[in-house]
Design a protein that fits this description.
heterodimer; A: 782 residues; alpha+beta; Aldehyde Oxidoreductase, domain 4; Aldehyde Oxidoreductase, domain 3; seven-stranded mixed sheet; five-stranded mixed sheet; B: 175 residues; DNA polymerase, domain 1; 5 strands; 14% strand
Chain lengths: 782, 175
């Protein structure tokens, strides 16, 4: 009988299978791909945010030793490739033919024999610009005489789209008639995922077979293959996209950027493989931008603090193109999760997308489609309401939580929350952190003039898109897939439609199969990321791998188990109905000594299967989730403020997460640690901003402050477990919960530290200068 | 070849992971490119262009340096240790074991730099406190782990290098 300690399926902290190559430095990341005869590509970029291009002269560049070609928009235009679709059905220039619309925009590419030669070539390309007036403020962009960012569009306006959800009239009535209304402007600035590996690709075209192979830093290789095929007209079976080891994704590696397309064009035109690897500064200045939401929120309640209505109006600054990878019916993503964990009778939310002269925006930052913006808004508003009512923020939350017995819960904005127990999570958090003691300590410190704050965030996430009847990317439905093949000697290969960028799929998906089939985890190999071998899937982002492909993996394994049951009945000479799956094997009911393990049955599937049964033991599942999953958490931040410098020190941070069934506790904890750090970052440090001329600030790691080990607190974590009722394993997805949940906990703590001085809100990032100015105004700076 | 050599070439000899290498390099060639492109040691990664991220950290004559900010010609006559040199005789280095056991990596891209900076740290200070570890790795960025497990990994490696039995926070290892 196989032992659980041998199988190490669900619930075990199995050491990761991918690590042996990474700790030896023999992982294969994009820049490690090297092909014979390969050329290197580098990019000429615009110094202006808005300008007409009057001349591009490549002649000097072509004289640089080793330069093989210079490609400009003119060449692309001739091939019909000067423009490309974004994943949000907008369009974006690959290379410009006559004008540029953001600083650092790609203007031309140079390919050369060496990396250094390509850079020399870029320096030698001469471009003449005639600067145009840029518009960088989305509110000004909406004014009648604003410069037009996208004259190529039929609509001669910078307004892209309007989207709304909920009941406008009922919400207005509730707010107009409410006892208490709090209103707040909240800006969630533009930030950047800054994965430590930048973007890049190697494109190679085989003239003989006609096959294009692209190694690419992509989180969604299959979707990219389909888009490449549709745009280039190369038949899809002649395109192979390989996502090798990826050095962090976080959403930034979902879209297609101009550099990828240019490298493919360069490979096709030169007939040689072409490698393009972004510099960090290019990465920070030209692609992967998230957030940039200007929010106006109003929350209404009665005098007892019972919430009545939520109204939100938002301007979404998308820069020069809507580059979001949102499902097509959701231009503002899942922002309508903004009623949060609270039983909100009515709500209305509207968002308007706007073009400005900034790089394309709307891309995720470790966040399922605008959930961070939604959570930040509601969690800030709840604290504003608590302050207005002079009520403890924990008490106000408890009073308004959706109760466990209300699930499945239909929210005012139309979501059906699958499961949750919010009071239990918050109680656990308060007990564990010692909330009452902290409040006492705060009162003592306040009396001494010290600034200490305690902040809560009790968030609900929405992850795991599909279901496919509502969710698609460019028309491709958001299902996901798994394919399992069990070998004769009892080991197996699993191929999945999603792709790891560090989440540990090679381990956790093997654990799912180990659990379902009773095979030891080390005998199961997981393969992913190669469109020639992996089943079609939509990729890994929006915390969707476990909710979708994880479910597909479990179901494919169960199909295998069904066939194995028939093999077991054959070998044990009984009927399938006489068998039970117990202790990771099939045994005869009432006679457990008569049993067959999966290894026995796999061998029989190839050597001793009954007449009339197909040989082999394999299965495929394309899983269409019936609903999204709704992970949640209760976070507490404790901060101290330095009155001399304005520095916020996060003294303690406790995260109670609930992602349903946990497959690998060690991996889940790691995801939470990382997510918390990517929540800390925008709360206190990271921001990209533009001056009135459209010059970018924050475009290198010298001024875009990714937290180091010094700023990052010693995260404390724990969990509650409320399984998803509709997921085959009860799992919900966890990769982004902490990034979503952490920022408002930190901001709420800072505001809490200053609330007695009349501070009700501070926009992120709460940098020392920003906070020091507030301390000055309030007369408490040292 | 001369057409490709606008500024001539320099001869260098560098000992990398105990092996002597010589090369003819452009004077502007960065050490990280010499390691990755000329010697095919791709474990040393490039994550930025401003010396902030530390993914390219190697140990040069006993000192942790960012190899994107060292010219290959500056390493002439020197000894360089890279991540590929940590494993000896088929035995993982204690730090490699620590990172694996304590889940000190996720995407793995910063890991070689983290390993090399902590390798140099432990040679200078075999028993660092947590604060000393955090300060010691503060020139290296990790976007995945939130550093908690990296600190534990280094503590594990340090204990093992001191001859103690490291205390793991995770499940027991399996062969």
């Amino acid at each position: 009988m196989p032992e659980a300690t041998q199988i190490r399926g669900i619930g075990h902290s199995v050491r990761r299978k991918e690590d042996p190559r990474f700790i030896r430095g023999i992982g294969k990341y994009i820049d490690d791909v090297k092909l014979p005869g390969m050329l290197y590509m580098d990019i000429v970029r615009s110094p202006y945010a808005h300008a007409r291009i009057t001349r591009i002269d490549s002649s000097e560049a072509l004289k640089v030793p080793g330069v093989a070609a210079v490609v400009t928009g003119k060449e692309l235009e001739a091939a019909g490739l000067a423009w490309m679709p974004t994943l949000m059905s907008d369009t974006q220039m690959v290379l410009p033919t006559n004008h540029v619309v953001y600083q650092s925009q790609e203007v031309a590419v140079v390919v050369a024999e060496t990396r250094y030669g390509a850079a020399d070539g870029v320096a030698a390309v001469q471009v003449e610009y005639e600067p145009l007036e840029p518009v960088v403020d989305p509110f000004k962009a909406l004014e009648p005489n604003a410069p037009l960012v996208r004259p190529d569009k039929d609509k001669k306006s910078n307004h892209i789209w309007h989207w709304e959800a909920g009941d406008r009239d009922a919400t207005k009535r509730a707010i107009d008639g409410a006892d208490v209304v709090v209103a707040q402007d909240i800006y969630i600035p533009r930030i950047h995922v800054a994965s430590i590996e930048t973007c890049g690709c190697v494109a190679s075209f085989d003239r003989v077979s006609g096959k294009l192979t692209v190694w690419m830093t992509t989180q969604a290789p299959h979707a990219i293959r389909t888009v490449f095929s549709l745009v280039s007209k190369i038949p899809e079976h002649k395109i192979r996209v390989i996502s090798p080891d990826i050095g962090g994704g976080f959403g930034g590696k979902v879209p297609v950027y101009p550099g990828y397309v240019c490298a493919v064009v360069a490979a096709l035109t030169t007939g040689r493989p072409v490698k393009w690897i972004e510099d960090r500064s290019e990465n920070l200045q030209a692609d992967s931008f998230a957030r940039d939401y200007h929010i106006r929120a109003e929350l209404a309640a009665d005098t007892n603090g019972k919430m009545q209505a939520l109204r939100i109006k938002t301007i979404a600054d998308h820069g020069a193109a809507d580059a979001a990878a949102n499902p097509s019916k959701f231009p503002a993503g899942l922002f309508s999760i903004c009623t949060g964990s609270y039983d909100m009778p009515t709500a209305h939310v509207e968002v308007d997308g706007v073009y400005t002269n900034k790089p394309p925006g709307g891309i995720a930052y470790r966040c399922s489609f605008r959930v961070t913006e939604a959570v930040h808004t509601i969690e800030r508003m709840v604290d504003s309401l608590a302050l207005k009512l002079n009520m403890d923020p924990a008490e106000l939350r408890m009073k308004n939580f959706i109760q466990p017995e209300q699930f499945p819960y239909r929210s005012a904005l139309g979501w059906e929350y699958d499961s949750g127990n919010y009071p239990a999570a918050l109680r656990k958090a308060l007990d564990k952190i010692g909330y009452a003691d902290l409040r006492r300590e705060q009162a003592e410190k306040r009396a001494r003039g010290e600034l200490m704050g305690i902040g809560l965030s009790t968030f609900t996430e929405i992850v795991g898109a599909g279901p496919s009847n509502t969710f698609d990317i460019l028309g491709i439905k958001m299902f996901d897939s798994a394919e399992i093949r069990v070998h004769p000697t009892g080991s197996a290969i699993v191929r999945i439609g999603v792709q790891t960028q560090g989440q540990g799929h090679e381990t956790t998906f093997a654990q799912i199969v180990a659990e379902e089939l009773g095979l030891p985890v080390e005998n199961i190999e997981v393969e992913h990321g190669d469109t020639d071998t992996a089943p079609y899937g939509l990729g890994t982002y929006a915390s969707r791998s476990t909710p979708t492909a994880g479910a597909a993996t479990a179901i494919a394994a169960r199909k295998i188990r069904d066939k194995a049951a028939r093999l077991a009945a054959h070998l044990l000479e009984c009927s399938v109905d006489d068998l039970e799956w117990q202790n990771y094997q099939f045994q005869v009911k009432g006679a457990p000594e008569r049993s067959k393990t999966m290894a026995d049955l796999a061998f029989a599937a190839y050597t001793n299967h009954p007449q009339g049964m197909e040989a082999g033991l394999e299965a495929v599942c394309y899983y269409d989730p019936p609903n999204l999953t709704f992970p949640f958490g209760a976070y507490v931040a404790v901060v101290d403020i330095d009155r001399g410098t304005g520095e916020v020190r996060v003294r303690r941070f406790l995260a109670i997460d609930d992602c349903g069934t946990v497959i690998n506790p060690m991996v889940v904890e790691g995801q939470v640690h990382g997510g918390l750090t990517m929540g800390l970052a925008p709360a206190l440090y990271e921001q990209i901003w533009y001056d009135a001329d459209g010059n970018m600030h924050g475009g290198t790691l010298m001024d875009y402050l990714v937290p180091t080990a010094m700023e990052t607190p010693r995260w404390e974590t724990d969990r509650t477990v409320t399984p998803s009722p509709h997921h085959p394993l009860g799992a919900k997805g966890v990769g982004e919960s902490a990034t979503v949940g952490a920022p408002p906990a930190i901001v709420n703590a800072v505001v809490d530290a200053l609330s007695h001085l009349g501070v009700t809100h501070i926009d992120i990032p709460i940098t020392p200068p920003r906070l020091w100015r507030i301390l000055q105004e309030k007369g408490v700076a040292l | 070849m001369s057409a490709l050599e606008p500024v001539g070439r320099a001869s260098i000899r560098v000992n990398v992971n105990g092996q002597q290498h010589s090369g003819e390099v452009e004077p502007r060639l960065l050490l990280v490119h010499f390691l990755r492109e000329d010697l095919n040691l791709t474990g040393t990664h490039i994550g930025c262009d401003t010396s902030n991220c530390g993914a390219c950290t190697v140990v040069l004559d006993g000192v942790a340096v960012k190899s994107c900010t060292v010219l290959a010609v500056q390493a002439d006559g020197a000894s360089v240790e890279t991540v590929e040199g940590l494993e000896q005789g088929g035995q993982l280095h204690a730090l490699q074991e620590g990172f694996w056991q304590e889940h000190g990596l996720q995407c793995g891209f910063c890991t070689p730099g983290m390993l090399m900076v902590s390798h140099a740290l432990l040679q200078a200070n075999p028993s660092p406190t947590e604060d000393e570890i955090r300060r010691g790795i503060s020139g290296n960025l990790c976007r995945c782990t939130g550093y908690v497990n990296i600190v534990k990994s280094i503590q594990y490696g340090a204990a093992k290098l001191r001859g103690e039995t490291p205390v793991s926070t995770q499940e027991p290892t399996h062969a």
